Amino acid sequence: MTGSDQQWQRFGRAGLVLALLWEHLGDRLDEQIAGSPYAITNPGFENGADTPTAWQMPGWAAAGGGTWARDTTVSRSGTASLKLQVGTTNGYSYVNSGARVRIGSGTYTYGAWIRTDGVTGLGAHIDPLFYDANGKLVGSDHKVYASKGTHDWEYVSYVFATSRRSRPWRPRKCPRRGGSG
Length: 181
Prior knowledge:
Layout: H1 5-25, E1 55-56, E2 66-71, E3 81-86, E4 95-97, E5 101-103, E6 106-119, E7 125-126, E8 129-131, E9 137-139, E10 144-145, E11 149-162, E12 167-170, E13 172-174, E14 179-180
Antiparallel strand pairs: 1-4, 2-3, 3-14, 4-13, 5-12, 6-11, 7-10, 7-13, 8-9, 8-12
C-alpha cells in the first residue's frame, strides 16, 4: 500500500466484511473446506448404505466366507461402524479403503477401535499395506491384533516412519477365524 486514501478505504472495507462474516460464521471459519491428501476417506464409516462409502472387500477375500456391512446399531462414536463377520472356523474377511493415501516423510500412526464378539484363531486386526508409485505392493504384514474372544471397544495402532518421498498406503481391517469384529 502506498498510503492513498482510496487504498486505505478498500483495506477498511475488507476488514469490515471479515468482521461481519465472523459474527455470522463464527467457529465455522475454522472448518476444513478441502480434503487433505493424507486423510482416509470415511474413516468412521458414517457415510454409505449397506456398506460404507469408499471401503471395499477385495475379490480374493470373498473366498473366506466373511461378510461386511455398515452397522448403524453399534458405534463407538458417531452413528455407524464397520461390521465384519466370519461364520466358519477357518474363515476370514478383509476390507480396505478404496483409495490409497499418499504419505510423505515422517512418523505416522494408523489406529482403529475394534470391538469383537466370539473371535478365535488369529483374531481381528489392522494391517496397513504399502505400494510403490506403480501400484505394486511393497510392504505388508504389519498386523496389530485386538484381543480375542468377546470384548468392548479396544484401540489398536501401528506407528511407522517413512524416509522416502511420499508413497501410497491403504488401511485394512480384518477379523479371522470365526466371530465378528
